[in-house]
UniProtKB/TrEMBL annotation:
Domain of life: Bacteria
Phylogenetic lineage: Bacteria, Pseudomonadati, Pseudomonadota, Alphaproteobacteria, Rhodobacterales
Protein name: OmpA-like domain-containing protein
PANTHER family linked: LIPOPROTEIN YIAD-RELATED, STATOR ELEMENT OF FLAGELLAR MOTOR COMPLEX
OmpA-like domain sequence ranges: 109-226
Residues of the signal peptide: 1-19
Length: 226
């Protein structure tokens, strides 16, 4: 077996082992996602990174194409796995520290979504964050400061009660008010992206009081920069 062929075999074996390891199921039952293991983001990131790295390496020409593809898969998998592990740690810490009833932390691929009901933050029809309800926001700001290589999109949502244009404006004002608290908590403004969706993205039926209450919320979508 030639040296080049041996190298190819070793690299491909390592890449395959990484993918298989990432696919091993865990035994964890999460509080917000019972079907997902605590290593889910790490595993997904490793697989995604490996695929991207492999695709980039495959663009090489000649005999080195396969070797570079495998090497790229390994490097990409390591980077993607590190990002996923960071998201897993941050999610576990936020679930531990955000104790207000109704606040949730959900992992979706390579992002975290923290949801706070309107009642946790605002009085009815108000865009001013209640001073007595800002503790969770400062807790979230502390987490964002501990994990600085991320951005957070702050998204305001309303139910469909009243005028749609008013609801859109209120959702934007609320998102900006919440973003200001995060910035006051030390998060650089360039990392915080406030936006409003009004009544356009309900997560429950607006035909019931319970559904409308669920739809009135602020979501924090935390994404790695890389």
């Amino acid at each position: 077996m030639t040296t080049v062929l041996k190298t190819k075999t070793i690299l491909l074996s390592a890449a395959a082992a990484m993918a298989l390891t990432a696919c091993v199921p865990g035994g964890y039952t999460g509080a917000n996602n019972p079907d997902q293991s605590p290593n889910a983001n790490r595993n997904a990131g490793a697989i995604t990174g490996a695929l991207i790295g492999g695709a980039l390496g495959a663009k090489s020409k000649g005999d080195e194409k396969l070797t570079k593809a495998a090497a790229g898969a390994i490097v990409g998998g390591v980077i993607g796995g590190a990002i996923g592990s960071q998201l897993d740690r941050q999610a576990q810490e936020l679930r531990r520290d955000l104790t207000t009833n109704g606040v949730s932390v959900v992992r979706q691929g390579n992002q975290l979504i923290v949801t706070m009901p309107q009642d946790v933050l605002f009085a009815t029809d108000s865009a001013a964050v209640r001073p007595d309800l800002q503790r969770d926001l400062y807790t979230l700001a502390g987490s964002l400061n501990r994990y600085p290589d991320t951005t957070v999109e702050v998204v305001g949502h309303t139910d469909n009660t009243g005028d749609a244009a008013y609801n859109m404006r209120l959702s934007r004002q609320r998102a900006q008010s919440v973003a200001n608290v995060l910035i006051n908590g030390g998060v650089p403004s360039y990392r915080v992206i406030p936006t409003g969706r009004g009544e356009d993205q309900p997560i429950a039926s607006n035909l019931t009081p319970e559904g409308r209450q669920a739809n009135r919320r602020v979501e924090f979508i935390i994404r790695p920069n890389n």
